Amino acid sequence: MDQSYRFAFDIGGTFTDCVLLGSEGSLLTAKVLSDHDNVVGPILAGLKQMLQTNGLDIRQVSDVVVGATTAVTNLVIERKGAVTGLITTKGFRDVIEIGREIRYDLYDLTAPGPDPVIPRNLRAEIDERLDAAGNVLRAPSDSEIEQVIGDLISRGAQSIAVCLLHSFTNPEHEQKVKKVLMRIAPQVPISLSSEVLGELREYERSVATVLNAYVMPMVGSYLSTIENGLRAAGVRATLRIMQSNGGVISRELGERMPIRMLESGPAAGALGAAHAAKLAEMPDVLAFDMGGTTAKACLIADGKPSVTTDFEAARLQRFKKGSGLPVRLPTVDLIEIGAGGGSIAHIDSTGLLKVGPHSAGSNPGPACYGLGGQRPTVTDAALLMGYLDPQGNLSGAVTLRPDLAQAAMYEHIAKPLGMSVIEAANGIHRIVCEHMAAAAKIHAVEKGQDVRRYTLLAFGGAGPIHAREVARRSGCNEVLVPANAGVFSAFGLLVAPIKVDTVRTRFTRLESIDWGACEALMIEMQAYLRDQLRSAGVADEQMRFRRTADMRYVGQGFEVETELPARLHAGELSALESRFNHAYEALFGSFLNNQKTEIVNWRVEGYANISSVSGKHALAVNRHAAQTRTRQAYFPDIQAFVETPVIHESALIAGQRYEGPALIEQAGSTVVVGPGDAYGLDAYGNIRVTLNRRSSH
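The structure assignment produced for this chain is given below.
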């Protein structure tokens, strides 16, 4: 029992992925169906499966447990959070409903705006006011605060959000509200906008604070359930939680700031992709994560996933910007580009074949799972096209039923449209891949990038199956599929650093900047983050800090994040202007000459790398000999079935190149290689595919 293990789990909408990383570099994986009524069950089932299969003892899981979950996202989307009350400055309680008055559909005059989450009868005001500099103009009284809190609780409020005007400059009044609440109703959780998002723009700050309060009671009990379940099973490791910004935090901070977990699973996948790309010496990759419910993409340039504060939750229309709730917290810049393996195909009112947005999930799942699903899904199409083994199962979790997939496809798609079952399946596959390729190209253009120079790095249970067709249609020439692609987001959790961040709004023109005051502000922010890292057990010598500022040309309404030097002083003026111009040019193609510049927000990120993943050994798997067999597989570019070798990845020899077609089976996924494509295995267990140029779309 000399070897210890780190354990990670990613709770998805369809599957829960589990990974054990040994102290000597071995990697063990498991994939089990998610159970949203018993969140701990699949986690323990996956852990037990890995331990029993490899003769390990649960006491060897003695380091860190890292978890990612879609729980926060689901609470927001399904509006199943706590009844929440909002306290605002007098005259501002309707900001969260008025929003930005942006019409997300130009031609739909009746398009509804995002649901404000909190009804008007639970939005209260207090008579207080600060000026823009944070000076007190009118202080609230304790008696008024007590009355407002009492009224909200009497109306059923289980959690309180506080968003007062200019509190990002001076949090004194918000802290006073918190102090009163702790005295009269300490059992009620509270979220302050100055703590959740300390920057200007009242609507965005209100949304982030409200959502944090909305999910806080549920997430606290949710994380406690997971930790208590693990401890009851004998796991004595520390529990850390993945954030949307690409770092992990302690469970305690996760309970206080659950909104930071909004996109935790996809963020972990992007981190894993960046790690794999670095090892493969491919600095620019398009991370393509396709699971059971959705598909997401992230541009990784120079080995780093891009991070944005322009993120929307719970969109009314999935692909229309402005139809969701803006969350301006740092988030790995992922875009939802399409459906997942469980997305249901249907014929719309105009007689056209459509896929999604509804998903079969894990219960009842696709028709081929044999768990009661009656509608054809993307997974059913892949099975009928020969990409999945008709006699196989998905990581031991589900036995596939081709007969049920065929029956569902015929009844709901092929028969109504007057086509064959394989034509219907191919249509579903092509629609899904075309939509994903188009969305990926648009995402790249919006970032000032050409997706054709990127390598498509595919993972997730369904990613490697669809990667070739997505790459073909988006113009990418190469595909890289990492080892253990089916559970890759869980692996990404193990390479994530501990990370915290903070932001402060302080307007200043670059021409008249007070360098000493700004440096003092950054030092104060770093000290705040240093305390958070220390509370998470990080030693001072492990801490690293990154400084940025949100800058813009005077007169503009939105900013560009710009790197700052390690120390601010007058000698950095020209360098700072140059950095901003370079960042601006990267987004918009050119920068403006002779224009005055200003800084709006100051940001500091504190992090510590805690991972000991060494690369080659950690990504290696237990390889065993596998006999090559064949089966018929359909390829859209030649519109025909081809007798295709089915190869277990363990049969591939590192450094040797092969020619397609081929179906390469991994634990939890299958890599589709087309006719004429070249492929091989590199030293780190990655499968590299070079597309046949004649197959380009």
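Interim note for the steering committee: The chain is about 30% helix and 25% strand. The mean pLDDT is 90.
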